[in-house]
């Protein structure tokens, strides 16, 4: 593989994912609206919201520190880097060796830390409350996420996502029972980390139970736009990590122009199915009390651990 | 690792069985518990069918059909009727510590896997790897019977244990003799009918299905 086409693929993937991430969000919202017998705002609505927010004047609190201003950019940067590392369109990208799955989880943790600090920065009670809840969810979700990823790395003997994808996609098809556990655990972590319904409601705006929204309540205009964009990027990043581990088929090699249209079609198809599934899941379940969240994520951790155990029992 | 495809399929069903066992262990609602029980029975039927097909053991087809009729259709139906008659359909068990139960569950699974490892090394069956899962699901249903306070969920724990035993028999020796299996099936059926009668008596005497009321030995 020559370096130039690798870089082209890298740029292509990074730009593409950043552009379609709001579309993914819009698709999920649209599906949910359909499932609830509403007409919905259309799948382009997130772009309109972003456009509107970018054209407004930002309002900052008097006591906001530089950290409060910097956070949206850091958050967006972290998420953009994350989707650059995850093999979305092609494997063995130039960015891929920079971070394995553990570093990827660390990247998400960095973003979370800055959002929480920014939430507490202004000193409103809502921001502090949201930040504390977010940290609680985060510290419970991270071990479960790591265990899930370790199950996948046990199979492919590597913690690098690109290697995991290559091992799973280009080998003879084998059923891995441990992956069934890991998939359920990963789904639970995905819902918790992206403030989806059993843990947090993405469509609430002023409620005592909100987590993500509570932290970003003080943001406006371009800052808010970046945070919203980063949230949709995070959702896309998690969903594509899920694809990379559990349904890696159709992905192209970097520099393989022939495989690119197939990879693109596969990606769009997978994203559509995943978005519809997510909407269905959110419609069917109700939000839990915050004190049930440890139980929910504890279950995710347990399932991931069971996945590792079954790997040792059944797949050696 | 290159197992034949049917062995992979059996392993997958075994993993699903364990997953459902854990789901039942942590399920608070009685209605969902019964549905999970029916699902576990169905997974058991599928795995038995795959074993029967890949080892040409014809009697396993009969036991699969027996399991289907009894554990997927008949027993859940009886249970549904029972909870409707007892008016506990939407009951939720309030006092179980789920994280602690899950941790004990994981310890049990590790114990069972270690216990089964030396045995399954000597087994020549296609299902030898799943013995650990069978033992684990038996132990998990034990745990479920110990931790639950409501009589209905205890009985479901008992029936789940029978699922685990059946799976253990299938994975260790390709199933029990037909006579034994028929006997067990009849026992389970009669047992659950008797349990149903018991439920009504328990509720009449104690005005609740909470078995903690039965721990007091005094008359009044």
Question: What would you say this structure looks like, in words?
Answer:
The complex is a heterodimer of chains A (316) and B (220). In chain A, helix 5 (125-156) packs parallel to helix 11 and helix 7 (177-193) runs antiparallel to helix 11 (293-314). Chain A starts with a helix and ends with a helix. Chain A is mainly α and 316 residues long. The model of chain A has no long low-confidence stretch (mean pLDDT 84). Chain A has one domain (3-314). Helix content of chain A is 70%, strand content 1%. Chain A has a two-stranded parallel ribbon with strand order 1-2. Chain B has one domain (5-215). The model of chain B has no long low-confidence stretch (mean pLDDT 82). Classes of the chains: A mainly alpha (316), B mainly alpha (220).
Architecture blueprint of SSEs:
The complex is a heterodimer of chains A (316) and B (220).
Chain A: H1 3-35, H2 45-54, H3 66-85, E1 90-91, H4 101-121, H5 125-156, H6 161-169, H7 177-193, H8 212-215, H9 221-246, E2 252-253, H10 259-284, H11 293-314
Parallel strand pairs in A: 1-2
Chain B: H1 5-25, H2 30-55, H3 58-86, H4 98-122, H5 131-147, H6 151-173, H7 178-206
What attributes characterize this protein structure?
A: mainly alpha, 70% helix, 1% strand, B: 220 residues
Number of spatially distinct domains of chain B: 1
Question: How many separate helices of chain B?
Answer: 7
Show the largest interface. Answer: A-B, 23 and 30 residues
- Overall outline of chain A: globular
Structure summary, number of beta strands of chain A: 2
Summarize the structure.
The complex is a heterodimer of chains A (316) and B (220). Chain A has 316 residues and is mainly α.
